Amino acid sequence: MSDKTAPVLAIQDLTVGYQTRNGIIEAVRDVSLEIRKGQTYGLVGESGSGKSTLALAVMRYLSANGEVRKGSITFNDRDLLDMSTNELRQVWGKEISLVPQDPFSSLNPSIKIGEQLAEALRQHTNLNAGEAATQSVDLLKDVRIADPENVADKYPHQISGGMQQRVMIAMALSTEPNLLVLDEPTTALDVTTEAAVLDLFRELVYERQTSALYVTHNLGVVAGISDRVAVLYASELVEDAPTKDLFAQPLHPYTRGLLDSVPRLGQRKDERPLQGIPGSIPGLQQLPTGCVYADRCPLAIDICFDERPPLDTPVEGRRVRCHRWPEILSGEIDARRADVEAIAVEDYSSQPLLDLDDVEVHYPVGQSLVDTVRREEPQVVKAVDGVDLTVGTRRTLGIVGESGSGKTSLARAIIGLVARTGGEIELLDMALPPELNTRGKDVLRHLQIVFQNPDEALNPYMTVGEILRRPFVNLLDESRQAADEKVAELLQAVRLPAEYTERRPPQLSGGEKQRVAIARAFAANPDLMLADEPVSALDVSVQASVLNLLNELQIENASTTLFISHDIGVVAYLSDEIAVMYLGNLMEVTDADQLFDVPYHPYTEALLSAVPAPDPSVKKERIRLEGDIPSAIDVPTGCPFHTRCPRFLGDVCVDEKPPWQTAPNGKRIYCHIPVEELMDIQKPVVKFEE
Ligand code: SF4
Ligand code: SF4
Q1: Average pLDDT over the chain, rounded to an integer
Q2: Which residues of the chain fall short of a pLDDT of 50?
Q3: Where is the domain boundary, 330, 354, 389?
Q4: Does residue 259 belong to any structural domain of this protein?
Q5: Alpha carbons 522 and 500: distance in angstroms, whole number
Q6: Residue nearest to atom 3 of ligand 2 (CA)
Q7: How many CB atoms lie within 10 A of CB 331?
Q8: What pLDDT score does 368 carry?
Q9: pLDDT at residue number 56
Q10: CA 186 – CA 165 distance, rounded (Å)
Q11: How far is residue 56's CA from residue 295's CA, in Å, rounded to a whole number?
Q12: Is the Cβ atom of 672 under 6 angstroms away from ligand 2?
C-alpha cells in the first residue's frame, strides 16, 4: 500500500485531557499519525500509555470529564471533532466501527444475535426486515460461524466468548466501514480462539481494504497483523515505523526495552535472559520536563532530563522522539541492558521432589430442586481427571493450557486449597492429605503459592512488614525481633526499599505488590513454589523483572517451581520441563528445549501454531482448531481432544483412551498415532530465521 494515497484517518498534534480533582491530566500529548486505505496500524503501550484514550478520542467516545484540548482528527477529509451528535450518528457504525475488548458488554443480552445484526443493518441501509435478517445470517457465515441460522437465533449468553467476538466483528463490518477501531479485541480470548479471530480479521480487512487502528498491549499480536506500529509511552508517541523495521531495529530505548521484556518464541532463560525495564511509568499529573522516559532509560544523559526531545524523522517512514537516535541508528550506542545475566541451569532431574499419582479433582455441580425431586444423578465437573507427574528437585515445571484445561485446579489440589477427590500426592516422600486444614505446620512450610492477582492475596489493611513477618512467626516459630531482621533481608532480595515495611498494599504498584507476594512465599524457604499465572496481570516491562526474580530466588533457595501459565512463550522461557494440559488431562510432557521439535501431541501442535510470536520474521505452520473446548462436565470419551483434533483417526480416538508413548527425544505423548508416524507427518510448527 503506497503511503502517497490520501489518509483515511489523520490525527494531528492531538492532546486529550481529563478533568480530575487534582486538575487536568493529559492522557495523550501532541500525537500525530495517519492511517491509509487498507492499512492496519498497531498502537502498542502499557497501562497509562494513553492508547485507549486515543482510540476513544477517534470514536468521540471520551467520558464526560475528558476533552480534546488541542489538535485535529480528520476522517476522509472531514473534521471529526467538529461534527454534531447527529452527524456522528451517521458515521458511527456505518463509516467507523468499534470492536471492543469485551464483546459481551457491547451486545444487548436480551436481544437475539440475528436481530441485533439486522437492527444494525437497518439503521444504516435501506434493507427491509426480511432482507436484513437474511443478510445477518450471511454476515455470520462471513465470519466463519458454523450453523449461522442457529447462532442467529441465540442470545449472547448462549454462545462462547470467541463466537461473541466474531459476532462483534460481523457487526462492525456489516456496513463495510472505512475504518475499524479495535480495542484489545482478543485479550480475553484463549490463544487458539485468538488465532482464529486474528486470521478472520486479516482476511476480511484485506478483502475489503478496510483501514484499522488496532490497540493492544500484546507485541505478538501487533507483529502478526499490523503494517505499521506506533509505540505510546506516558501519553506520548515515542516511536512509529513499519512493523518489520520496528522489530528489527527499534530506535527508541523504550521500544528496545519492551521488545527485550517479552520472550521470543524459543528464547530460554539460560541463553538470553529477559531484560525488563526498571522502575515504572511516571504519573501523568507530574510529567517530567525533559524526556518522559528519562528516569528508566539506560541511555539518559543530562539533556534528557532538561529538554523534551522532538519527534524526529530519522529515515523516511519512521519517527522517533529521542535525543540520541542518531547514535542508536549508527550503532554507536545500544539501549540493551548489560547488567542482566543469563541464568545458570543445572540438571537436578534425577531426584524427585513432587510425585502425583492419578490425581483427580471432581466436584458435583449444584442441583436444582427439580433434579433433586427427580433423583437425577448430580452432574460432575472433572476439573482434573487422572494426572500422573513427577517433578525433580530444583527444577521448574511449566504447565500450559487454555481456560478449562484444569491447570489451576491441579495447582490448588497440590497446595490443598481444593481437596482432590482421587489419587495420591507425595512431597519429599511425605504423603500430602487432600485438605489444607489437615496438613501440619511441618508440611505447610514446604510448599507455598504465588497467585495471579496480588490484590486478592495481600491484606490491604496490613503493612508490608506485618505481611512478611507472619510466615516467620507462624510457620518457623521465630521471635518478632528475628522476624523483623529477616523481613529486611527479604525486601532487599526482592529489591524493594527498606521503608516499604511501613506501606500498605494499596500504596504499591502492581509489580511491587507481586514482589511482596513473592517475598512472603519465599519467607519460609519452601521446597516447592507454585506460581499460578504470577505475571499475567502485570505490564510486560514489569513481567520480565518479576520472572527473573522468581528464578533468582528459586536458585538461591534451592527450591522447585511449578509454573502455571496460559502464555507458552513465558513458560518455554522459564521452565526446564513442560506439561501440556487439556480438559483435566495431560497431553504431552517434554523437556522445554524440545518443545518446538517434532513430534508433537496434536493439541500441542495446534497450540504452538496459534501463539502470537513477538517477531514478524518467525514463520508458522497454520493449524487451527474448530469449535471451543468442551465443558468439563461432559468430557469426550476416549481421547478428550477427539472432538477438535485435526489429526483425528476415527473410532479408536472416540472409544479408547490413548496410550502414553515416549519419542526418541524423550517427549511423552498421549495419542493413538505412533510417535514414528507423528515424526513422519509433522513438520516443525515454528520456523526461526537463521
Ligand atoms: S531522550 Fe534520552 S532519556 Fe529519552 S529515550 Fe532518548 S536517550 Fe533515553
Ligand atoms: S488420540 Fe486421536 S484424537 Fe487424540 S490426539 Fe491422537 S489422533 Fe487426536
Answers
A1: 89
A2: 1-2
A3: 330
A4: yes
A5: 17
A6: 642
A7: 8
A8: 65
A9: 92
A10: 8
A11: 29
A12: yes
